[in-house]
Amino acid sequence: MNGRSIATSAMLYTVTAATLVFIAAPLLVTMSLSVSDTQFVSFPPRGFTLAWYGKVLRDPDFQSALSFSLWLASFATFGALVLGLPAAFALVRFPVPGGAAIRSLLLSPLIFPVLVTGLGLLQLFSMLGWGSVPVNLLIAHILVTSPYVVRTVSASLMLADITLEEAARTLGASRWRTFRRVTLPQIAPGVAAGGLFAFMVSFDNYPVSMWLADAQNDPMPMFIYRKATGVFDPSVATVSTLLIGLAIVVVLILDRLVGLRRAMGM
Amino acid sequence: MHTQPAAVRLADLTKHYGKAVAVDRLSLNIEPGELVALLGPSGCGKTTSLRMIAVLVQPSGGEIFVNGASITRVPVHKRNIGMLFQSYALFPHLTVAENVIFGLEMRGIKRRAAGLRVQEALDLVQLGGHQHKLPSQLSGGQQQRVALARALVIEPAMLLLDEPLGALDKSLRESMQVELRLLQRRLGITTVMVTHDQDEALTLADRIVVMRDGRLEQVGSPAEVYQYPATRFVAGFLGVSNFFQGTVDGRTGEAVLVRCSNDLQLTVPAASVPSGSATIALRPEAVRVGPVGRVPPGPNMVVATLEQAVYRGFMVHYYLRLPGGEPLIAFQQNSGNGVVVGMDPGQPVLAEWDEGSNRLVRDE
Ligand SMILES: Nc1ncnc2c1ncn2[C@@H]1O[C@H](COP(=O)(O)OP(=O)(O)O)[C@@H](O)[C@H]1O
Ligand SMILES: [Mg+2]
Hints:
Helix content of chain A: over 70%
CATH superfamily of the largest domain in chain B: P-loop containing nucleotide triphosphate hydrolases
Structural class of chain B: alpha+beta
Strand order of the largest sheet of chain B: 6-7-8-3-9-10
CATH superfamily of chain A: MetI-like
Largest sheet of chain B: 6 strands, mixed
Bound molecules: adenosine-5'-diphosphate, magnesium ion
CATH topology of the largest domain in chain B: Rossmann fold
Oligomer: heterodimer
Distance between the termini of chain A: 25 Å
Shape of chain A: globular
Strand content of chain B: 25-35%
Shape of chain B: elongated
Number of helices of chain A: 12
């Protein structure tokens, strides 16, 4: 290895390490606070206790927020997949007139300020007189999550080999069976990545839920926000740590199942 | 495997892409069991033609008949066609056996019966022991054979091959050509093959369809197309040809006399006398080269300058220059007597050939 490449890789490592610290430090701080044996959040944490975990897990408000968010994220993901998969397929595989414009429209929730989207939806729902909060939340979450599915699935479809689909067709497979037996296995990592994004974005969403939620339908981010602005004891950090753990577990499982790293180009 | 060889007829098959015409009124009768090769330079519409037969591309006009019935509007998955792609197009997530059984599953054939047919098809292409491997674990030649087994196992009415051996290296390609030909003969399956490789077309095909700019240029057996090219394009594309331009100047006996520049006269056996200018194609292997004796008085001979003699084993290639500056190429079999005396580069030599080797071709 010559001097220049040593210098280059040293710089690469430094930048990577700095980025990792930058990303991980807040999480590590949160995690360390969650075991702090103090009445209020203070840094650095003092002592060690798992008491906050016991308290949080027994808290009925936490339980209902968690189960509501899991329900909401699951159905939003399902809805995003049901809508996003065919949309991506049509946009990539067929010369739809005005396809580029439709694609931009479908992806627009990604760039549109989510806060504004939420407010707009609130006004729309009240105008229409749609009173069911869970349903409204679900519709809103599907809207903001489906672009992630469209994007990742489109990317994998573009990479998938069309001649495989043509081969299946000449072998007697209908369009639907071709999709299921040949296309889907090829784009599975993209579908999983899109689904994961959709799930996490929904689970994590504050700016849309803020407008549409009420006391009976209380998603997790709102629960955390209320907790943090109320009594600022370490249980907030505990809740956050539990969610970090959940996210890691989901990512690991999906990576095992479909090779997520490949789908995200890592 | 028992395929019922199908008769296929293409009638004015046409494909437009916007304003561009990829295939222009292609008409062709294909006999049951025949192997027809579509041959032409890249971009001449071969693949598009083949894909229209397979209905992977919707024709802009024209019809396709199989055994007399139009299949133009039958969707691709109901056509019973075996197709081989240049990239093999094996399903990467399925094993060899799962790839081959795919078409049978789509036809709802019971697993046991299907399994037997898969075994039979894999034996046919000599891959009996590789059932449980993934395509990525096979060599290119083996992958193409799996693709062949997968296409044949459904007992298709016809087999379509798009540059089937293009991705293989030369020696493997040649042995696969022979194998493919034997198999096709044995099964008697009507086959349309696309290639830009003239050797492949000459080796494999019963008939060659030469295409140019989306149009059919000439159809015939390999020998017909090679020996009697109808156009200048065919004469130049299939093998090597010398070309002469001249004007028709009446008849001499059974032949038409064509006068070219620098006193070169050619006689062409032809029934009717075409008037005006004429283009004549001449194969290099028809030209005899020798030392200049006396100055030639007759037609179909010329004194030319020898520029280069290239020794190619059993053949010698002579590169000559005519008095008018045009090149003339001659291939001559090596007689085994070593170098011919009086044939040094830069020296004049006598080139001559038989009247019967001259071919009048259309030049457009
Ligand atoms: N999907 C397509 N869209 C537009 N033009 C095409 C398409 N497919 C082929 N063509 C054009 O049609 C012509 C014939 O192409 P093709 O059939 O692939 O030729 P070949 O197989 O003989 O090389 C080419 O000029 C090519 O650019
Ligand atoms: Mg082609």
